[in-house]
Design a protein that fits this description.
The chain has 411 residues and is an alpha/beta fold. The protein has 17 helices and seven strands. It has a five-stranded mixed sheet. The radius of gyration is 29 Å and the shape is elongated. This is DDE Tnp4 domain-containing protein.
Amino acid sequence: MNSRKQLKRRFNYLLKNLSILLLNELIEMVENEITKNKRQWVRKWIDDRNETGGSALLLKQLRFEDPAEYKLAMRMSPQNFDELLSMISSSIQRHDTFMRDAIPAKIKLEITLTFLASGMNYRFLSHFYRVSKPAISQVIPEVCWAIYTALKTHIKIPEREEEWKIIEDGFNTKWNFPSCHGAIDGKHIIIKAPPNSGSEFYNYKKTNSTVLLALVDHDYCFSYIDVGANGNASDGGVFKNSSLYRRLEDGLLPTKGVIVGDAAFPLKNYLLKPYPGTQLSTAEKVFNYRLSRARRISENAFGILVSRFRVFEKAIPTHVDTVDAIVCAACALHNWLRKRSSSYITSTCVDREDNDGQIIEGTWRSEINPLPSISEQQRGNHSMTAKEKRDLYRNFFMTAGSVPWQLDRIH
């Protein structure tokens, strides 16, 4: 009886060890198969990304040997890059899978910034960074939205009186326009027409576009953006459908405060636009000149945006939702870099005046073609109080608020 028990125990022992051996063999076979499939799934030149890709070679070399060139490539310093990466890394980093390794968050950000800075097509980005083209089409909107989420607090309408006062003083000091709290404008972002969209995005320039509506403060920063309206809309139409319009109608600005816009916008108690027509009085011409000086803030903000992020220089060939992500990210980066980097906007980048009021154009005007403006909406009836508000400024600019050179500039 005892011998039978011993034999049974020995049999169970051998069976257990055999099972372990078979299991280990099976695991090794599966791992080998996975490794084989992984090698087959990822192209060799892509699999070498961490050794020979643009991030591992050129950008690494620029970062340590030529920071100025690195800044031209990324549109920010290595320190700014690291700061931004720390803010978004957790939201864009994915885990490795059995089939492939996840693209590092650092490379995702480098790909996206290169695309924003240059508009380089996905195929070239794929070759440079050794990342597949389908992956890049997913990386760019993902990272753009992550950037916007991290930096959107830098696009902010003032909430406190002292914040409005800073903007007001800025417009008055730089452009001699009192009680001004922003310049509003709308630009076409040229896109590739979506399938079956008809004339939905077709604008007066005979291209397809979406619209970026923005309110710009005294320091060339965007206080508010509205992104994604169809290209066939007017400034006035986009404006009236925006949340900014509703807030302005509800008394957003400080007492007697105004914003300035071009002829595409409606004349309001809080929104000044030029006198229309060509048969204008001297006082009306002076008002239009003074208004255009203040509006240079928005022209320059858009100009700097495009000169820094060249993706806007040509039609963006992505899905419309990705275009929205690109615009939001670029505007947020523009504001963030304006505050973080002293060299993002220099004195020569933007328009300025000499002692005689002669405009010296910013360097961006010779570097790029500006974004197309929205066409003028049909002229409507304006309230009497709005007309009176504009007339008050007209009279002020001819008396106590005049500048010595203004008559020279209108002839």
